[in-house]
Amino acid sequence: MPNTPIISLRDADVYQRNFLVLNNVDFEMQAGEFAYLIGKTGSGKSSLLKILYGDLPLQNGAGQVAGIDLENLSTSKIPHLRRKLGIVFQDFQLLTDRTIEKNLEFVLRATGWKNKSEITHRIDQVLEDVNMATKKHKMPHQLSGGEQQRIAVARALLNQPQLILADEPTGNLDPETSIEIMNLIKRLSEENNMAVLMATHDYSMIRRFPAKTFRCENGKVLVAESQSLFANI
Ligand SMILES: Nc1ncnc2c1ncn2[C@@H]1O[C@H](COP(=O)(O)OP(=O)(O)OP(=O)(O)O)[C@@H](O)[C@H]1O
């Protein structure tokens, strides 16, 4: 549907157990848009992302992600939501006991893929997308942090999502590798018209790759004014 936002929240409350982390959140992102999510430690960035990928329930308010309603999202609907998203974490979260190929195959099978040759083909495609085709048979521990994050990005791409949610994806990487990963995510977002919402503490990345920036502050999510972003650094 044209002009349907990829993410919308209306008057949404975000709880961690009984603790109200964010309240009356109105938030919207359009297809293909790239945006940052900033805010102090504990301000609610991860909690907001968790609402969007169905890891926390939306208790009050309305919301949809990639056309799926977040209100009353039943456990059985969560896999459907997750197939429409790619998620990238700070700590990569690869399965350490199997090769890169088997890591990717695991996700495809868990999301309903059955045909062996289609699985192999899709794995080769995403590894090509992140320039990691030669690492297919390696174990995660044989790769550098930056390479492991590339594989995590490839894993996020498997089901051709319209949206990537990234929680501090450069948080464990050195500055040079962080730039590489940012270039990769930016390129993939542009090539595939894929929206990206990236939580980060890394203002040097925002400075280098400027984009719309939301800030979690005092229980609210606001669009950050660009001139105030770098006032303190
Ligand atoms: N599992 C949990 N149970 C109870 N409270 C939690 C839980 N996880 C987070 N919180 C609380 O919710 C609030 C928001 O946490 P959240 O992890 O969303 O912040 P954040 O902005 O992502 O922080 P950081 O930058 O440190 O990752 C914090 O006060 C935190 O203590």
UniProtKB/TrEMBL annotation:
<dbReference type="InterPro" id="IPR003593">
    <property type="entry name" value="AAA+_ATPase"/>
</dbReference>
<keyword id="KW-0067">ATP-binding</keyword>
<dbReference type="GO" id="GO:0016887">
    <property type="term" value="F:ATP hydrolysis activity"/>
</dbReference>
<dbReference type="InterPro" id="IPR017871">
    <property type="entry name" value="ABC_transporter-like_CS"/>
</dbReference>
<dbReference type="InterPro" id="IPR027417">
    <property type="entry name" value="P-loop_NTPase"/>
</dbReference>
<feature type="domain" description="ABC transporter">
    <location>
        <begin position="7"/>
        <end position="233"/>
    </location>
</feature>
<keyword id="KW-0547">Nucleotide-binding</keyword>
<comment type="similarity">
    <text>Belongs to the ABC transporter superfamily.</text>
</comment>
<comment type="function">
    <text>Part of the ABC transporter FtsEX involved in cellular division. Important for assembly or stability of the septal ring.</text>
</comment>
<dbReference type="GO" id="GO:0005886">
    <property type="term" value="C:plasma membrane"/>
</dbReference>
<dbReference type="Pfam" id="PF00005">
    <property type="entry name" value="ABC_tran"/>
</dbReference>
<dbReference type="GO" id="GO:0022857">
    <property type="term" value="F:transmembrane transporter activity"/>
</dbReference>
<dbReference type="InterPro" id="IPR015854">
    <property type="entry name" value="ABC_transpr_LolD-like"/>
</dbReference>
<dbReference type="GO" id="GO:0005524">
    <property type="term" value="F:ATP binding"/>
</dbReference>
<protein>
    <recommendedName>
        <fullName>Cell division ATP-binding protein FtsE</fullName>
    </recommendedName>
</protein>
<dbReference type="InterPro" id="IPR003439">
    <property type="entry name" value="ABC_transporter-like_ATP-bd"/>
</dbReference>
